[in-house]
C-alpha cells in the first residue's frame, strides 16, 4: 500500500501538537517561557519528526530513540529553557504524561462525542482545553492542600494541636515590636487560655468591608509548625491575634499563620 505524505502538513500538525504540549508542561511547572520560545521549541520537535519521515526512520528503534530522547530533550530545553538534569528530567516526564493524556482524550472525543469536531485542529484544541482545565483544577486543589500544615500552640502548660493555613497574603505585623501576627478565633483563644487573664495588645489591621480596625493579640508561649515535608519550625512567644469571625467556612483550618514563621 502506498500513500502520499505532505511534509508541510506533517510539520504543521506536529507544530500545533508540540506547542500545546509545551504549553501544558509550562503551566504545570509554572515556567515563564514566552510564546515565541515555546513556538521555537515546537518547531524544533516538529522538524525532527519530518526528518524521520524523510529518511523512513519513524518506525525503527533508532527513530524511537531520536523521538523520545534526542528530539524531546531538545524541544524541552529550547521551548521551556530548562537547565540542569533534574528540572529537565521532570519536564520530560511531564511531556510524556501530557502526550499520553492528550492522545487518550482525542480518542475519547472521536469515539463518544457526537458533535462535528472532526478536523485535526478542532480535535487538538478541544482536547487541549479539556486537559488544561482538568490540570488547572488539580493544581488549585493541590495548592490549597499545600498551604495546610499541622500546628502545635502552647500557652501556660496547655497545648492545642490544630490545623493551620500558611497564608502568603498575611502581612499583619505588630507596630510596636514588629512581630508577625497569626490569627485564631475567639473560641479557640478561650479554649487555650481556659479563662485565665491575658494581657492583650491592640494591632491595627485593614480588611475588606472594614478599612481600619484594631485586633486584640496576645503572646503565646510557643508555636510549632510541621510542614508536609516533615520539617518543624518552632517560634517562641508568637503573637496571636483574635478574631470573632470564622476563619474557614468549611472548618478546614483553625489558625492563619504568618509566612515569616517558616523563614
Give unreliable regions as ranges: none
Helix- and strand-based class? alpha+beta
Shape: elongated
Helix fraction by DSSP (H/I, runs of at least 4)? 40-55%
Order of helical and strand elements: HHHHHEEEHEEEEEE
- What is the number of E strands? 9
Over the alpha carbons, how many angstroms does the gyration radius reach?
27 Å
Biggest sheet, spatial arrangement of strands: 4-5-8-3-9-2-1-6-7
Quote the average pLDDT.
Answer: 79
| Proportion of residues in β-strands | 15-25%
Major β-sheet annotation: 9 strands, mixed
Kindly report how far apart the N and C termini lie.
Answer: 67 Å
State the helix count.
6
Descriptive overview:
The chain has 263 residues and is α+β, with helices and mostly antiparallel strands. It contains six helices and nine strands. The protein has helices spanning 7-29, 35-54, 61-80, 85-112, 120-146, 186-193, and strands spanning 148-155, 158-166, 181-185, 201-207, 210-219, 222-226, 232-236, 239-243, 255-257. The chain has a nine-stranded mixed beta sheet with strand order 4-5-8-3-9-2-1-6-7. β6 (222-226) and β7 (232-236) form a beta hairpin. α1 crosses α2 and α4 (85-112) packs across α5 (120-146). It is elongated, with a radius of gyration of 27 Å.
List keywords for this structure.
263 residues, alpha+beta, nine-stranded mixed sheet, 6 helices, 48% helix, elongated
